Write a sequence for this structure.
């Protein structure tokens, strides 16, 4: 993938066009555009857990992130996750869900919550007062501007 | 082992800081910028730091934009208070964290990086 995008040149009347100019302004820019289109995979350019809230990129989107956390008895446990795409000028953790896979039947009275979030990721905390062991995946919805 | 967590930041215009942790747990930061709350971004200076056995989190401080090592994840970004209220925390972001024997490092991917 071409690393850089060159702002397309405004051509002037009678200008002699060289191979390097064509390579930079046509070949490399077309390569750059194709590579980005291919990398996005879909017309809307979203990853599997990203959801656009309008028909225009640059608008708000929501993204589903996850983090795995395990407890070994009473205590507070932390897990971190990263968003697939960094959010733009705003990001909010708007909700979460827990998919539990208990490794012990006496794990109970557990409370999971969003500890912090930024444009690039989030931290979830699991408070275990049930005494048993458990592991689970905590899902967090992020909401913010796409760019 | 170091696990790099790629984050698509193609629309974040300033050159992103780049963080690496080698097999000797030497953390190196290549100078750049990191997204902050709102339209803001912060400058991250180049630095090399030896990680110790009890270090579990690498934070980016809001005051002085310093790299801070900690044995736990410190409050960063924004913290939900409930009722739609949020509180800005003293650290901008969590840049890297340890899970078991592995370090996980956030890596902002810009401009078509593979």
């Amino acid at each position: 993938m071409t690393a850089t995008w060159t702002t397309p040149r405004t051509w002037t009347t009678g200008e002699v066009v060289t191979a390097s100019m064509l390579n930079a302004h046509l070949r490399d820019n077309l390569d750059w555009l194709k590579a980005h289109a291919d990398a996005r995979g879909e017309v809307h350019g979203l990853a599997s857990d990203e959801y656009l809230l309008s028909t225009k990129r640059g608008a708000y989107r929501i993204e589903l992130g996850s983090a795995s956390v395990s407890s070994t008895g009473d205590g507070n446990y932390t897990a971190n996750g990263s968003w697939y795409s960094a959010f733009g000028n705003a990001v909010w953790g708007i909700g979460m869900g827990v998919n539990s896979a208990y490794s012990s039947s006496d794990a109970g009275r557990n409370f999971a919550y969003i500890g912090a979030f930024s444009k690039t990721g989030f931290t979830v905390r699991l408070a275990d007062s049930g005494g048993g062991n458990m592991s689970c995946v905590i899902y967090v919805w992020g909401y913010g501007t796409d760019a | 082992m170091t696990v790099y967590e790629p984050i698509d930041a193609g629309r974040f215009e300033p050159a992103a800081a780049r963080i690496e942790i080698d097999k000797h747990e030497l953390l190196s930061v290549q100078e750049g910028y990191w997204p902050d709350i709102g339209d803001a971004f912060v400058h991250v200076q180049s630095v090399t730091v030896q990680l110790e056995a009890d270090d579990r989190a690498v934070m980016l401080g809001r005051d002085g934009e310093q790299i801070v090592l900690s044995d736990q994840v410190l409050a960063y970004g924004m913290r939900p208070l409930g009722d739609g209220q949020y509180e800005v925390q003293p650290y901008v972001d969590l840049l890297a964290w340890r899970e078991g024997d592995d370090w996980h490092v956030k890596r902002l991917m810009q401009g078509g990086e593979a």
Summary: The mean pLDDT of chain B is 89. Chain B is about 0% helix and 55% strand. Residues 2-109 of chain B form a domain with the Immunoglobulin-like fold (CATH 2.60.40).
